[in-house]
TrEMBL record:
Chain ranges passing through the membrane: 12-33
Stated name of the protein: Transmembrane protein
Keywords: Coiled coil, Membrane, Transmembrane, Transmembrane helix
Protein source organism: Marilutibacter penaei
InterPro entries, A to Z: DUF6776 (IPR046703)
Region (Disordered), start-end ranges: 219-252
Length: 252
């Protein structure tokens, strides 16, 4: 059965209401889009700006890290150069001190006011070569007979203790050879002679005795503490009976 027909007036009112509701819905949708769409665009813009800023910060951090690394390398290079310079200056100071000591030595030996002395041991120095081996260098001098040549042999003996007992090691024991000859010398004013010795295990050296036997005349013996002999030129030495120089005119 067909529905009851609306009167024309009510039908026109219903259509008008429907139109108003449609317009209201359309306006509401447009307003919602206006509210939401700009917000979405703003968020996207902010995200993009944040990403750009982050990339900029990372680039800045990388740049600063590179600068720090460069400065660190430059600082290390400067430190190494400074250490090299200090070592060079220390070596030069040591060299100058050695040259001054040599000049003073020559002045005392051959200068116009030098004290005349016969054959003597100016200094002796021992340097370790291993557990028991030592190398010594001894400086011999004489300026009593100028122009004359002193000749002879040098031997060393060392006093010390082993197992709590005093012991003296002769040249033969130090050289580990019963027939070991002495170290020959021949000079006008000074000469350095050197050789090697061997100390037995457990031996504690205390004093060094340097024995000079000229070709003619009496022997000479001088003593040095082991501490001085291993430190370098001693400030003073224990001097025994001074030998005749045993000097002979220089050939020719």
């Amino acid at each position: 059965m067909p529905p009851f027909p609306l009167p024309p007036r009510l039908r026109r009112a219903a259509w008008g209401l429907a139109g108003v509701m449609a317009v209201a819905l359309a306006f509401g949708a447009w307003g919602l889009w206006r509210v939401v769409a700009p917000a979405g665009e703003d968020v996207q813009a902010r995200l993009q700006a944040s990403e750009t800023a982050r990339e900029g910060l990372e680039a800045r951090v990388d740049d600063l890290s590179q600068q720090v690394a460069t400065l660190g390398r430059s600082d290390q290079i400067s430190r190494d150069a400074n250490l090299d310079l200090q070592r060079t200056l220390a070596e030069r100071d040591e060299e100058i001190a050695g040259l001054r000591a040599d000049v003073a030595f020559y002045e005392r030996l051959v200068g116009a006011t030098a004290q005349r002395r016969g054959l003597s041991v100016h200094a002796i120095r021992f340097e370790p070569m291993g557990d028991t081996a030592w190398h010594f260098t001894s400086t011999l001098t004489q300026n009593l007979n100028r122009g004359a040549v002193s000749r002879g042999v040098l031997r060393v003996a060392i006093e010390g203790t082993r197992d709590g007992k005093r012991e003296v090691l002769s040249w033969a024991l130090l050289r580990q050879d019963e027939g070991a000859p002495g170290v020959a010398y021949s000079f006008k004013y000074f000469q350095q002679v050197e050789d090697d010795i061997f100390l037995p295990e457990g031996f504690e050296p205390v004093r060094v005795r340097v024995q000079l036997q000229p070709e003619s005349g009496r022997a000479l013996e001088q003593g040095f503490t082991w501490a001085d002999a291993t430190r370098g030129s001693p400030p003073n030495a224990e001097t025994g009976a001074e030998a005749d120089t045993g000097a002979a005119p220089e050939p020719g």
